Amino acid sequence: MAKEYSNLIGGEMITNGAWMDVLNPATEEVIGKVPACGKDELDRAVAAAREAFKSWRKTSSDERAKVAQGIAAAIKENADELFRLLTAEQGKPHAQAQQEIYGAAGLAAAQSTLTLDDVINQDDDERLSRTRRVPVGVVGGIVPWNFPIMMAIQKIVPALISGCTIVLKPSPFTPLTTLRIAELIKDVAPAGTVNIITGEDSLGPLITEHEDIHKITFTGSTATGKKIMEGASRDLKRITLELGGNDASIVLPDADVEKVAEQLFWSTFSNAGQICVAAKRIYIHEDIYDDLSKAIAEYAKNVVVGDGSEQGTGVGPIQNKKQYDRVLELIQDAKDNGYKFLLGGDTDLSGTGYFVPLTILDNPPEDARIVAEEQFGPVMPLMKFSSEDEVIERANNSEYGLAGAVWTKDTDKGVAIAEQLETGTVWVNEFLHLSPFAPFGGHKQSGFGAEYGIDGLKEFTYPQVITVKRDAVV
Ligand code: NAD
């Protein structure tokens, strides 16, 4: 029988007798069972978080940093077990699962060094005015299935560092590694400061609308983000929304074709394309389009799509059936419209597991669904451009504004183009790099607010200004 995992509520690992199955997307086998929670368990978790907040809000930054470092250590010490479990439930190859687990531990350790210091607004004979950052209270964290551990840690740790307590809900598709981490940190984080409960999507709105939750930090699709904004409006909860993206990569004619081909490949196909900041539209200057598109397709032919637990696999399966069907639908649409494929394009797939062959399209039109929509799968549309102004306009012609990249030997020109892109992050000559100390967030329908860095921490607090009138007669 599949292993049963417990939730963390008020410092205890609990189950409630109702279960949800979790599948391995490479084998479609049930590999674990997690509690299917509803309003009762949520109320318990929120009550525990409220109680814990009373004392946690008064802790020093040193005490908070120690807990964050303890979380980092617990993840690192158990990394071997955790990355294997992550591959089993999420699908990503072992090496990428390792990166996520060590990355999450590194993020927790790095963020433990952040503090929100008071700011003096005025200090003279007349008045002392000081701004302090006050933790908002109980935070509701909701995360998706593509980077379940990174996303969980990037919500739990800043919540704790800023003095809040949290109730976190993993995606129903990928809760296992998160619950294993819950078990590992049970005695690291004081009881009630971190609560992790699992449930179907229907648990999400209960969190958004809970009257004792004061902030929602959400990562997921734009469609769900809109529902969260609506739900949170009832009591004007603070919200941070990290949503979808349709990131453009722009390759200028001076780029080194062979080197860029490999980089571009992984900027699209890492995690089987299921990355909010994956390169989803590749614009290549017409002078190098033929050479570069050929080099990318050649590179792709040597990358193995398969079970992430097997040695040699470069790209794993799509994480779940719903997303698998959506990616195949987009590929089918491209076929139906007669767009040209350099690689892949097969939608008549059989066998076990949600595997989609690597798919590269040759110059589809800008309004093709596979270009205009977020694919979130192993799909790479390559498009030709001739002038910088034209490509900037095409890159910005999207409802999303998450990230983008420019590839060129002329970094000044790269930066000049980057500054014209309407996105929260732009990389010049690299991709997917996020710093624990720099804000990460989107523009337009990619969401608002920030995670990471001081800007990210501030989102868990509100500013309180205290002024003391010095020359008053009382
Ligand atoms: P999703 O929106 O379907 O689900 C995300 C989470 O929201 C899950 O835990 C789900 O159970 C929960 N949920 C579902 N309905 C809800 C509701 N009505 N109210 C509250 N919660 C609800 O997203 P997904 O399919 O899991 O993830 C893929 C999407 O996430 C992609 O669009 C991707 O771009 C985006 N994403 C964004 C970032 C970022 O930082 N901007 C990072 C990773 C993924």
From TrEMBL:
It comes from the Bacteria. The keyword Zinc does not apply. Keywords: Oxidoreductase. GO terms for molecular function: oxidoreductase activity, acting on the aldehyde or oxo group of donors, NAD or NADP as acceptor. The active site is at E242. CDD domains: ALDH_AldA-AAD23400. Residues 20-465 form the Aldehyde dehydrogenase domain. It holds the Pfam family Aldedh. Coiled coil: none annotated. Belongs to the aldehyde dehydrogenase family. This is Aldehyde dehydrogenase family protein. The lineage of its organism: Bacteria, Pseudomonadati, Pseudomonadota, Alphaproteobacteria, Sphingomonadales.
